[in-house]
Amino acid sequence: MGDLEIRPAVADDVQAVVAMLADDPLGAQRESPDDLSPYLAALERLNGDPNQHVMVAVREGRVVGTLQLTVIPGLSRKGATRSLIEGVRVHADERGSGLGTQLIEWAIDESRRQECQLVQLTSDVTRTDARRFYERLGFTASHVGFKMAL
């Protein structure tokens, strides 16, 4: 399958990233691949923040995976820093190849490098395959998450 590079996302990657975000029943309802301007503005904002890491996995010049890692300094847990993994997506052609594992391992390694004491993520309750995937990697469903649309 060729060599894999995990690197920061750039504007030229946005179309491929948005296509992956939209490539499932939930994403199809929330994403708008026809208008990339809000995504480009968001990427510019994110790339200006040293605690934000929007990454892409590239194989043979093609974006085949993505995730966002956010480093969050805190007061709880004796001033612990934690990281949050969001927006994990793997291109349909790459699912089952181990790419998702490589992306999550990158995020965990980067979290350690940034001296995080905890890495966390959420997954929609309807994504049963994703839940099994994260549990297989050592994550535990230890909390109940809440969200409020604004």
TrEMBL record:
Q: Kindly indicate whether the keyword Acyltransferase belongs to this entry.
A: yes
Q: Which InterPro entries match?
A: Acyl_CoA_acyltransferase (IPR016181), Bact_Acetyltransf (IPR050832), GNAT_dom (IPR000182)
Q: Which domain of life is it from?
A: Bacteria
Q: Entry's CDD domains?
A: NAT_SF (cd04301)
Record-annotated N-acetyltransferase domain positions: 4-150
Example GO molecular function: acyltransferase activity, transferring groups other than amino-acyl groups
Keyword flag Transferase: yes
Name of one Pfam family that matches: Acetyltransf_1
Name the UniProt record assigns to this protein: N-acetyltransferase family protein
Q: Specify the species.
A: Streptomyces sp. R21
